[in-house]
Amino acid sequence: MPGNKYNGNSSTPRTRLERLLRERELRKSNRSIHSNEEARDSSRQVELFGNDTALVEGDNPGSPYEEEILEGGTAARAFLDGCERQEGHGRPYKQRLLVVANRLPVSAVRKGEDLWQLEISVGGLVSALLGVKEFDARWIGWAGVNVPDDVGQKALTKALAEKRCIPVFLDEDIVHQYYNGYCNNILWPLFHYLGLPQEDRLATTRSFQSQFDAYKKANQMFADVVNRHYEEGDVVWCHDYHLMFLPKCLKEHNSNMKVGWFLHTPFPSSEIHRTLPSRSELLRSVLAADLVGFHTYDYARHFVSACTRILGLEGTPEGVEDQGKLTRVAAFPIGIDSDRFVRALELPPVQEHMKELKERFAGRKVMLGVDRLDMIKGIPQKILAFEKFLEENPNWRDKVVLLQIAVPTRTDVPEYQKLTSQVHEIVGRINGRFGTLTAVPIHHLDRSLDFHALCALYAVTDVALVTSLRDGMNLVSYEFVACQASKKGVLILSEFAGAAQSLGAGAILVNPWNITEVAASIGYALNMPADEREKRHQHNFMHVTTHTSQEWAATFVSELNDTIVEAQLRTRQVPPLLPMRDAIDHYLESNNRLLILGFNATLTEPIGALGRRGGQIKEMEPKLHPELKEPLKRLSDDPKTTVVVLSGSDRIVLDENFGEYNMWLAAENGMFLRLTAGDWMTTMPENLTMEWVESVKHVFEYFTERTPRSHFELRETSLVWNYKYADVEFGRLQARDMLQHLWTGPISNASVDVVQGSRSVEVRAVGVTKGAAIDRILGEIVHNKGMKAPIDYVLCIGHFLPKDEDVYTFFEPELPSESPPTPRATLSSSITSSMPKFSNNKGGSKSSRLNKQRSMSTLEKKATNQGSTNSWKPTWRDKMSLHEGSSVLDLKGDNYFSCSVGRKRSSARYLLGSSDDVVTLLKELAEGVSSVLDSSVT
Question: Is residue 904 part of a domain?
Fold first, then answer.
């Protein structure tokens, strides 16, 4: 591939895809160099540790809360052994990777005051993270034991350090409330569509809050350990629903930390997730990560949908965007170490097991189910489907056997005890009904199998039944396929398991709730022709052997590294934060100041992304922030300061909010202007064509009727359709359809601009922008005030749409390549323009304003009264010169401060985070003015 370092071409990749492709080729090259050594190491590991107990899923034996059933014992030994051999052997540099999970890959057993014995833990995450051997990895997590004394903690930390493990010490109360409570009682059922606990006691609410507090505290404890061991350049990879608060905790401590988060369970639809009381906090905490990963595209899509519907953020093809900050969201299907299973089939113990099984079930087709005994695994439904198959196919009753391995979990919980009894009852009834003295149709085992026995069982199976009701991935299907090179058995797979996204083309997909469908699929699988079995198996086998756990881990970290590169490129385009002290100092030192302030999202109370204040919809019209009333009063009364509120809102809204101040109001993007003591006048350009209004109005009416909680405003120079209170995703779809219709119909040949806001669509006449109006506004201000001194300080603050950001660049110094600028050091010698006056329209009830979109605008009425369809043209008694307003400016570069409020992609010089920052700035400016006046009086 051109551009790769190893082929002699050192050209720098220019795009994200080019960088990722180069990284992929480099990984392949490095793997081929060490492939022989790794093969030898893996063979030794299987021989040494192959007899470890394999089939237990979760954080500890009997726990249901890891998604995959994998052979964790051997995997953990391989991981830890590989970690030990990385140090001090002259190996190439490997990037440091901090893997943070709820549990360490080892469990600790205390043998004395300062003596600990480490036992290999089992679980899906341990085995899947075999891929991290490409990195210099360290594992951070809980060791599964309470260690209250310092001596024990130091001894355990030292013992774990030899295995490259770093413990997080949690006390019993935290473990009970954080792990058993919030993680396993709240999040795990919700993420698997089982819903929240429903109890009719007030104590439930109290316990929920205490569990959530413990959850946040535990996540902070994990973060503290990570921060102590973090080194610059490390990648921090957080895992699973236990640590959803961890990305936020880490980023608050160090915003430059590379943080990824991966979920190993399903992520539910937004309608399910929104039932969680702490829904918003968890989503925002996860979004602090740079890269968020899921097993399937469906889970990733649900997460993005939850962020858009619950938080009101922007969902993009790359992830979730919040005011310029992008969190990448992607699917990374996990895999297994397929070579380990393929090689294991050649081992003598496995061959011996296979021989015994073939002799035991000679003449019968073998069907296999391998599950944890849990509600989501669908074991009762599977057995009932098998019973229905036997009922409908008597000829198969003595020719097929179902082997069901059900690993017991949470045996102390009543719900699980009830499930165990239910399964035993169904199995006993079916065996009593269809069994004989010499054979029974179902062999049910309430225990796990060792690795060799499990591989042999996979190899002799004809049909595997993986019929989970809901599963994150479920890699039993992968393990079955890896062991089927000879038999080429059939896989029946639940469409609700994540593996269905990967193996769906080669498996028979079923709805596990549909007993009739599953029974029919069993018959189809048992009678499937050999050539079809061959094709299906080859498709699945190719996927399983190429999408390995090693490739999964390497791909995620590679994507995370590149996400950081992309973020750095984006950050360079983000303005720096406003140096507030400098802005205030320069303001106080100047003699003639101009403050240009936006209104909505600048001088208003903070409103959430969904158009809500404090979570509730309060007012349709924007209201001035109550804390700004006094500062604005003092600033506007200062004789050295001119305040202009420049807004897209109509005149009535500005009159209601600012009528009591001594300032200038510029409504509808500056097209109408008045000093609060005077009447409205127009600054509109000549030849303003408005013939398009009626046709666009009909389109807006149509979409308003079909989009609940949307509305539109009919202004003098524009029409605005707003859907900030509507369902976010539906509103965006409607806006897209509206734009397509507008461009192909009503405005295809009209002289208009279409301006898209975050929750609005505006159609306005060409030339109607804040920047186009500011020169004329300045001219009228100078004429009205009779300014004798030039304006030597400008502060321009607003949450302006990109179309209106020309107001920022208006005050920037001219570029050398441009035509000679109009002199700004002196005032224009004659400013004689006078604008036609408009009536000072302050009246009108609230209801009449809200129904404004159903009536004609003032502009339309004028045209109707004149009995003409010609474009409306304002009349000027004396036209203003092109640069009349700008000629009053005498700005030095450090006396101009343009600030975008909350909009990070901006042409402004500086950035303010929200309207709260605007409140702080204007308060300090007002206090500075007051102190200067007080000192001068003294």
Answer: yes
| Cα 159 from Cα 666, distance rounded (Å) | 71
Answer for the pair 422, 428: CB distance below 8 angstroms, yes or no: no
In this structure, the answer to whether residues 389 and 490 fall within a common structural domain is yes
Sign of the CA dihedral with 561 first, then 567, 572, and 575 last: negative
Q: Are residues 369 and 316 in the same domain?
A: no
Task: Give the per-residue SS3 of 757-781.
Answer: CCCEEEEEECCCCHHHHHHHHHHHH
What number of CA atoms fall less than 13 Å from residue 385's CA on the CB side? 26
Note whether 190 and 321 are same-domain residues: yes
Q: How far is CA 53 from CA 42, 68, 158, in A?
A: 18, 15, 27
Please choose, from the candidates 454, 479, 477, the residue with its C-alpha nearest in 3D space to the C-alpha of residue 349: 454
In terms of residue numbers, what domain contains 699?
692-765
- CA–CA distance, 487 with 481 (Å, rounded to integer): 10
Phi, psi of 365 (to 5 degrees): -75, 135
295 and 192 both lie in a single domain: yes
Ranges in the chain, pLDDT < 70: 1-14, 16, 27-93, 121-133, 199-206, 571-573, 607-621, 686, 813-887, 932-938
DSSP states of 500-522 as a string?
HHHHTTTSEEE-TT-HHHHHHHH
pLDDT in tens, 395-437: 999 999 999 999 888 777 788 889 999 999 999 999 999 988 8
Q: What pLDDT is stored for residue 289 in this prediction? A: 96
Residue 402 to residues 500, 522, 808: CA-CA distances in angstroms?
22, 11, 73
3-state secondary structure of 669: coil
pTM of the model: 0.74
Question: Two tokens at 888?
Answer: 């009053």
Number of domains in the chain: 4
Instruction: Tell me what pLDDT residue 351 has.
Output: 95
**CATH number for the domain that contains residue 908:** 3.40.50.1000
Q: Do 704 and 661 share a structural domain?
A: no
